Amino acid sequence: MRHRPDRERPATEGQRRRLAPGLSMRAIVPNAITAAALCAGLTGIRFAIADDFEKAVQAVILAGLLDGIDGRAARLLNAQTRFGAELDSLADSISFGVAPALIVYLWTLHEAPSMGWIAALAFAICCVLRLARFNARLDMLDQPHKQAGFLTGVPAPLGAGLAFLPLYLWIASGFEEFANPVLVSVWMVLVGFLMISSIPTLAWSRLRPPSHLRLGVIALVGLTMAALLTEPWFTLVAVTIVYLVLIPVGVITYAKVRRHTPIQGADPIVSPPIEPGAF
Asked: Which residue spans traverse the membrane (predicted)?
């Protein structure tokens, strides 16, 4: 019996997937948002080169907002792709690793060239290592933190926000003490360590205020937005400090969950899936 040539054999499902012609139209939207976030982060470097550090920080914050949208857009459109995940990770490494490191270096770290550059490199490398760990699935769903609904370490966008804390204080107060290159170098290294650490941090799914406080939370969010419009830098300082306080709260909460629920070897705690953008 003669066999049909290979070119005439019907393609398997895996072959059709490999030969799929490019991205679908649905996938273009979230990936375009990711590209916009990347452009915002790179534009922040451009503003820093021009000594416009306020706009530089604002550009990175805009990148963070767009980074929070692209994953939701992908899920809403059912357009999650491997390409989108890789693009998002690469964009985050630049917007929240390279860009903050260069912005802070151009702001003050250049005054202590050796120490300042090493601190900037340490922050950028830690951000890239965090994203590489995410891509390598070292923090898979069967890990204790994810089973309990926590993140591992500080996410990259929030790490960039923490790195800017001395810059927020300097812009808000005008005190040159906040621009001390030695102290800022130590702070950058500390934030980098928080990003790659295994410290359990609170995910959005864990922030569940009691029912009698939910109206107050809505009012607080509205007041925070108003404060960002009127006193943005002091508000950013306050928001950053609140997040720093939540880090030990997350550690304590995780310890209580671990004590009351045997996570390893038991049924996982039911919690909403961790968002891909929360690296």
From this structure: 27-50, 114-136, 148-171, 183-204, 211-229, 235-255
Distance of alpha carbon 97 from alpha carbon 279, whole angstroms: 12
What is the average per-residue pLDDT within 42-61?
A: 96
Q: How far apart are CA 215 and CA 166, in angstroms?
A: 33
What are the residue ranges spanned by the domains of the chain? 24-260
Calpha distance 252→254 (Å, rounded): 5
Name which residue leads in pLDDT, 87 or 166.
166
Domain 24-260 is found in CATH 1.20.120.1760: yes
Amino acid at 84: G
Hey, what are 126's tokens? 């830690």
**What is d(CA 194, CA 123) in angstroms, rounded to the nearest whole number?**
10
CB 192 within 8 A of CB 236: no
What whole-number distance in Å separates Cα of residue 223 and Cα of residue 104? 29
**CA-to-CA separations, 142 to 205, 206, 261, 265, in angstroms, rounded:** 17, 18, 15, 10
